[in-house]
Here is the input.
Amino acid sequence: MEAKKDDMVRKGPWKAEEDEVLINHVKKHGARDWSSIRSKGLLKRTGKSCRLRWVNKLRPNLKNGCKFTAEEERVVIELQSQIGNKWAKIATYLPGRTDNDVKNFWSSRQKRLARILQASSTTGSSSSSSNLKPQKAKKEVSVVCDFQAPPLQSYSMEEDSSARAHLCSSSYVENATTTQPLAMIQLQLTTDEMSDFDTNHIQVEPELQVQQQIPFHEIPQPHPELTFSPESREVLARLEDPYPFINVFGPPETGSLGPPFFDPAFQNPETPDIFFDDIPADMFDNIEQLPSP
DNA sequence: AACCTCATCAACCGCACCCCT
DNA sequence: AAGGGGTGCGGTTGATGAGGT
Here is the structure.
């Protein structure tokens, strides 16, 4: 019985001591040999669990606790439309973000979208927001008022584009018929959320200010194509590029895109790298880079 | 204050792939 | 060639906190 208890795999939240053991293991052996952590008796966690913990929480330079910026959201949406639910691949475009982050972001988004669609379909095409929760309706009003940014250019806005361009909010989504292309609705949600980008109205966190101070019109625009045109295939091909973001959205010539994504100094102050000071400098080179073909 | 709804996050699970023997 | 172990990925779930009624 005792031996059985010792063999038990531990599950659930990680303790600080376990994190420490895991970090020490990675220091010594690198981010591999996950199974040996258990076989050596260092932890009662499975190799998978250890790897997941490292990748999602302990790895250096993670943006833990930071909400997705408008730019990151746009990258996710753009790439998801191009390559589907390849979260790990998409995450390689977002330094400091994990596939789990991207996945969670997307599923939250889908839930929200589904709710909005359901709300609009159950009550027909009524233009009022009364079918939503009152607090939601309130939020939407403020968003509509605050939103001043130009629309994304990555999707074609055809009929009714001017209205949507200026008032891209969930309440307009609600007005949309359910036959509206999903991409369009997703775009509307995006721009809704991007109202956060209005620095005149929103207090931004210090570590995000570098990016959020960028005038909206200077943000590099993604490719306009949605279909798998030759250009899109080119984008897919760039997935092997260690810094594909530069290529996909144009060179950071204005410097506007640079800091949050490419400046090593841009780190979440809540997750300092003090644990890793004595790790060989090149040890993590492989982590952020895409695997070589 | 209690309750409800929703969003977010961390972690687990199953499957697929790769590599080694 | 086949089998097994290790690893990576995507889907799902449960816990928790925030905000509103």
Summary: Residues 11-14, 46, 48-49, 52-53, 56-57, 67, 100-101, 104-105, 108, 111-112, 115, 133, 135-136 of chain A lie near DNA strand B (CB under 10 Å from a C1'). The CA atoms of residues 22 and 50 of chain A lie 7 Å apart.
